[in-house]
Specification:
- The complex is a heterodimer of chains A (379) and B (254).
- In chain A, 75% of the residues lie in helices and 0% in strands.
- Chain A has a domain of 237 residues: MetI-like (MetI-like fold, Orthogonal Bundle), CATH 1.10.3720.10.
- Chain A has 379 residues and is an all-alpha fold.
- Chain B has a single domain, classed as MetI-like (MetI-like fold, Orthogonal Bundle), CATH 1.10.3720.
- In chain B, helix 7 packs antiparallel against helix 9.
- The chains are: A mainly alpha (379), B mainly alpha (254).
- At the A-B interface, helix 1, helix 4, helix 5, helix 9 and helix 10 of A face helix 2, helix 3, helix 7, helix 8 and helix 9 of B.
Chain lengths: 379, 254
């Protein structure tokens, strides 16, 4: 059985989608025509359908190339700004989520229960409540904060970061608990401090375990960022449906283009994640550079790309550059504020009843939860 | 505490019906998505290329686009096609069901419109995710077992029914439960952001935006988050326990 190469597969997906959406669009338009003109044509006539699908393809290409609104703005600019906003939010939120997730993971592995209990309850709370409710609670519930600290941008970033920090904490914790405790102890006996042993001994080994689920979460975040349109951020979903509402007769063309943009970004990302996973799993993999340095570089580059996307959407200029940086600082401040508040309140609620909630009092026992690797054919 | 308590007392019946609507959406879409996922997940391991290609197409397109986007398409696109073509009015059925849960007309008539397609959209989305889980579970069972069962004279259906699925199910339970947790969370998107049904989220949202007292509003959101947590956390505990049990049995098998 030979494998179909990915580009061919993507083209096939596009072709099928064009046919399906073209048929849908044709049916919509035909039905509307039928209602308005009170004629009795057969909408499911194959000739009509094929003609309409061809027309659909033509309009789609036209939208992507030459079509403009009445003011002369090209329609593709709407999609471009939508994609840029989506990328901006993901690229800025993911590094912050990883950093805060690392802090939470270290807290939840601490021996001190005043660090452990708040972190565990934070993670459980944010993983078990809907993202959309968190978003609305931050956006509508904290309106007493000044507008520089709480606006749609900072609220969106804060929601994504706070939610995904909980998931990244779980990923990083799984990576840390896969490393033998003895390694940290050996590093400490060599005279390394806590952070030194983390930086030079433990974390470099965990990167290969952490990276695949983090990339997976990046895809999830990419899709979850569509919810930001609820708090008035006009990203790709909002642009697409907004155009569909403005030009109802081309609704299915816009939907097709929007959906294809999402697919064209997330399918390669998924493939990339799978490739990385396979490469990291192979025995021959030896990192050539310091993985921690590389990770920090990637995180900074991602943030810069996000900021750049935002700046390009707002219009390149000194004001927008400083504005973007200021917004980023405000977002981090908002995240810290909410995180500290939630940690204190939830930690207080969970630890006040004392013995009632024993679920959080269990220390991590990595030796019991992780099976030792068994050689093939050992039994 | 006073104003928040008063608001909650006034809101209580709506809150109860909101929780009922959330659970109703969850149960319906969980059942329908499993009904989609099992054939699709098995179809992805099929011998026939066409079936495999169709199932892969479905799974990859659905998993590649956001749920919110899909729901908007179902609600503003496909529903329009159905209504204009067939005069399709499935909402009446859903509406009468929901009013039978709580018949004191807490549901506004306009709010239920489109819930049918909301549930279908949610199910189609989660069908793809659960199909992936099922495929991974089925493929984790060794291929030699299929061959052994076939050589013992079992038919293909019997092989998957009696040999493959019972073993795969044990591996599938934790990820399936995790999917159910996110399904509970995503019911909020269906009803609030798209359809406008008065589920738990929208009840709190309307009450919260209506008050000018910021602490009442924050308290309402806290209550809502707590209720969602109470719905999801048991599922999380089940998933974790199942995972631990699977690990233990896997370790014992060696």
């Amino acid at each position: 059985m030979q494998k179909i190469p990915p580009p061919v597969r993507f083209v096939a997906i596009v072709a099928v989608l064009v046919i399906v959406f073209g048929a849908c669009g044709s049916l919509t338009l035909g039905a509307l025509d039928k209602v308005q003109t009170r004629t009795t044509g057969n909408l499911l006539d194959p000739g009509v359908l094929i003609g309409n699908v061809w027309h659909f393809l033509q309009t789609t290409v036209q939208i992507l190339t030459t079509a403009t609104t009445r003011n002369g703005v090209p329609l593709r600019n709407y999609f471009l700004s939508g994609v840029a906003l989506t990328i901006e939010f993901c690229a800025i939120s993911m590094p912050l989520a990883i950093i805060f997730g690392l802090a939470l993971a270290l807290m939840s592995r601490a021996r001190n229960r005043w660090l452990r209990i708040p972190a565990r309850s934070y993670v459980e709370f944010f993983r078990n409540t809907p993202l959309i409710v968190q978003m609305l609670a931050i956006y509508w519930g904290l309106t007493f904060l000044p507008h520089t600290l709480l606006n749609p941008f900072t609220a969106g970033i804060a929601t994504l970061v706070l939610n995904y920090a909980a998931y990244e904490c779980e990923n990083i914790r799984a990576g840390l608990s896969a490393i033998d405790r003895g390694q940290g102890e050996a590093a400490e006996s060599l005279g390394m401090g806590f952070f030194q042993s983390l930086r030079f001994v433990v974390l470099p080994q965990t990167i290969s375990i952490i990276l695949p689920p983090v990339l997976n979460d990046l895809i999830y975040m990419f899709k979850d960022s569509s919810l930001l349109s609820i708090i008035t951020i006009i990203e790709l979903t909002a642009q697409t449906t907004g155009l569909g509402r403005r030009f109802p007769s081309q609704y299915w063309e816009f939907i097709l283009i929007g959906g294809l943009i999402y697919l064209a970004l997330s399918l390669p990302l998924a493939r990339f994640a799978r490739g990385i996973e396979e490469r990291l799993r192979s025995v021959a993999y030896v990192p050539r550079t310091d993985p921690i340095v590389a990770a920090v570089q990637v995180l900074i580059a991602s943030t810069l790309i996000g900021l750049l996307a935002g700046i390009l959407v707002a219009g390149f200029g000194l004001g927008t550059i400083f504005g973007a940086i200021g917004q980023w600082v405000a977002a981090v401040a908002l995240i810290l504020l909410i995180m500290l508040f939630v940690l204190v309140v939830l930690g207080g609620i969970v630890s006040l009843p004392g013995g009632v909630i024993n679920l959080f009092n269990r220390p991590d026992k990595p030796d019991q939860t992780v099976n030792p690797p068994v050689a093939v054919g050992a039994d | 505490m006073g104003p928040l308590w008063n608001t909650l007392v006034v809101l209580f019946p709506k809150l109860v019906s909101g929780v009922a609507v959330t659970i109703a959406i969850f149960v319906f879409s969980a059942i329908i998505s499993m009904a989609i996922a099992i054939p699709v997940g098995l179809g992805r391991t099929s011998r026939f290329r066409i079936i495999r290609a169709l199932c892969t197409f479905y799974v990859e397109t659905i998993r590649g686009t956001p749920l919110f986007f899909q729901l908007l398409v179902w609600f503003f696109g496909i529903q329009v096609v159905f209504v204009t073509l067939f005069g399709f009015n499935a909402d009446q059925a859903v509406y009468s069901f929901l009013t039978s849960i709580n018949s004191n007309s807490l549901f506004p008539t306009t709010g239920v419109s489109g819930l049918f397609f909301g549930i279908i959209g949610l199910s189609v989305n989660y069908g793809a995710y659960m199909a992936e889980v099922i495929r991974a579970g089925v493929q984790s069972v060794e291929h030699g077992q299929t061959e052994a069962a076939l050589s013992l004279g079992l038919s293909r259906f019997q092989t998957s029914r009696f040999v493959i699925l019972p073993q795969a199910l044990r591996i599938m339970i934790p990820p399936l439960t995790n999917n159910l947790i996110t399904l509970v969370q995503d019911t909020a998107i269906v009803s609030t952001a798209v359809v406008g049904t008065y589920d738990l989220e929208l009840v709190i949202q309307t009450a919260g935006v209506a008050t000018s007292d910021i602490f009442v509003r924050l308290g309402l959101y806290a209550v809502e988050l707590g209720l969602y947590f109470l719905m999801c956390y048991p599922l999380a505990l089940i998933s974790r326990r199942a995972e631990r049990r699977t690990q233990r049995t896997m370790a014992g098998a060696h």
